[in-house]
Design goal:
218 residues; mainly alpha; Four Helix Bundle (Hemerythrin (Met), subunit A); 68% helix; globular; disordered N terminus
Length: 218
């Protein structure tokens, strides 16, 4: 990894397995599980189920930070480990998953590979930039935070049935490229996940999307 990790004396280091029992990490891993389910259903072409997995991945991602900030007694290494875990999971949830979604919806035609690569590359560049420089002014992101990609795509798929498969594939392609461009842009956006009110709003959005897509699956 390019990012420097502070040295920790060996006697102070915990085992890897001990971090499984840290509540924020459990929440992060639950989000990773939702992402795995989303990828599974994307490959099967069951996109309504995939959307449920994608939005729950965001919900768990936001929740882990809120839980971590409210927990007492977490050490610096606990926070560092949780931060690294969060970034790695974000790459899968918001970089790899939307890229696979685009290729799957395009029947894995070669024409969708450049778009998928740009989305994935923008995602990892965006996360690397954040890991290096953090929040601008301590409160704002530089570029659109990539968790917004899932939120937008899940909303977009509500209208899939209004278009032919070919036309919606083009719309999805354009949307993915647009979101990727925003991810690596210079725009400043607020850290929505840091506000408990926004977490509640996301929870309501997650439940609503789950109900709508669950109904479509019936």
């Amino acid at each position: 990894m390019a990012e420097k990790i502070p040295n920790t004396q060996e006697k102070d280091q915990k085992s890897i397995l001990s971090y499984f029992w840290d509540l924020p990490n459990i929440c992060s891993l639950a989000g990773l599980g939702c992402t795995l389910l989303a990828i599974y259903f994307i490959i099967l072409g069951i996109y309504s189920a995939a959307m449920i997995g994608m939005i729950w991945a965001v919900a768990f991602d936001w929740a882990d930070g809120l839980i971590a900030r409210r927990m007492k007694g977490r050490t610096g290494s606990d926070q560092l480990f949780g931060g690294q875990l969060d970034v790695l999971i974000d790459i899968v949830s918001y970089g790899v998953t939307p890229a696979i979604l685009l290729m799957s919806y395009g029947n894995f035609e070669p024409a969708y590979l450049p778009g998928a690569f740009f989305m994935l590359a923008a995602g990892v560049m965006r996360l690397s930039y954040f890991s290096t420089f953090g929040l601008a002014g301590g409160s704002r992101y530089t570029g659109l935070a990539i968790d917004n990609n899932n939120i937008a795509i899940v909303f977009l798929f509500l209208f899939e049935g209004l278009f032919s498969t070919g036309l919606f594939a083009i719309i999805l392609y354009a949307t993915g490229l647009g979101l990727a461009a925003l991810n690596i842009s210079k725009i400043k956006t607020p850290k929505l996940s840091g506000n408990p009110v926004n977490v509640v709003l996301l929870a309501a959005y997650t439940l609503l999307m789950s109900a709508l897509y669950g109904w479509k699956l019936l």
